[in-house]
Amino acid sequence: MNNTFNLHIKNIDDTDKFAQNIAQIVSKTGGLICLYGDIGAGKTTFVKHLAKYLEIKEKVTSPSFVILNEYHSGKISLYHFDLYRLEREGLESILDELHEYTENDKALAIIEWAEFSSGDLPENRLEIEIKYVDENQRRFFIKAFGDKNIKILELIKEFYK
Ligand SMILES: Nc1ncnc2c1ncn2[C@@H]1O[C@H](COP(=O)(O)OP(=O)(O)OP(=O)(O)O)[C@@H](O)[C@H]1O
Ligand SMILES: [Mg+2]
After folding, report:
1. Which residues line ligand 1 (CB under 6 A)?
2. Cβ(148)–Cβ(130) under 8 Å?
3. Which atom of ligand 1 is nearest to the CA of 46?
4. Other Cβ atoms closer than 10 A to 153
5. All domains of the chain, ordered by start, with CATH?
6. Is the pTM of this model over 0.85?
7. Whole-angstrom Cα distance, residue 42 to residue 139?
8. Taking 70 as the threshold, does the pLDDT of residue 81 lie above it?
9. What does the alpha-carbon distance between residue 12 and residue 144 come to, in Å, rounded to a whole number?
C-alpha cells in the first residue's frame, strides 16, 4: 500500500481546509503528527488551524521557548511540541510521554522541528513536510507509518478525490 500523499496548497484557505480534514479524522483516533520544514514554512499556522477545528478554546501559540504547550479544552487533548531549542537530554525526558500520548486515542501529539529528534520518535506516526513555494503557496508531503496512520492517510486521500 502506498504510504505517501502530496498536496499542492494554493493559499492559507487550503491550509485551513486541510487542517479541518485532519481534525475530523484525528478527533476520533488521536495519534502523533511530526512536522518538518524550514522557518516560516507554516508549521505553527497549521497547528493553529487544526486546534480551531478540534474546538480548543485557548489561544494556541508557538511553544518554541517552552518545548511543550498542552491544551485540554477541545475534542481531544493536544500536546504541541517544538524541538528547535531542545537539548539531547530533553528529548530523552519527553520520549516516554510521547509514547504514552501516541497510544492514547484521546490525545494528539504534534511535533514541530521533528528533524531535531535524531530519529528517536515513536514508530507509529504521520509525517508532514511543508515546503515553501511562494508567499502563499506550499507543498505538503505526507507519509504514514504504522497501520493506524496508513488508515488515517487513506481517509485524507478520500477528501481530495
Ligand atoms: N498556505 C499557507 N499555509 C501556511 N502558512 C502560510 C500560508 N501562506 C502564507 N503563510 C504564512 O506563512 C507564515 C508561516 O509561519 P509559521 O509560524 O506558521 O511557520 P513555522 O513553520 O511554524 O516556523 P518556525 O520554524 O519559525 O516555527 C505565516 O505568516 C503564515 O501566515
Ligand atoms: Mg513554528
Report:
1. 9, 11-12, 15, 37, 39-45, 62, 112, 136, 138
2. no
3. 4
4. 21
5. 9-159 (3.40.50.300)
6. yes
7. 10
8. yes
9. 24
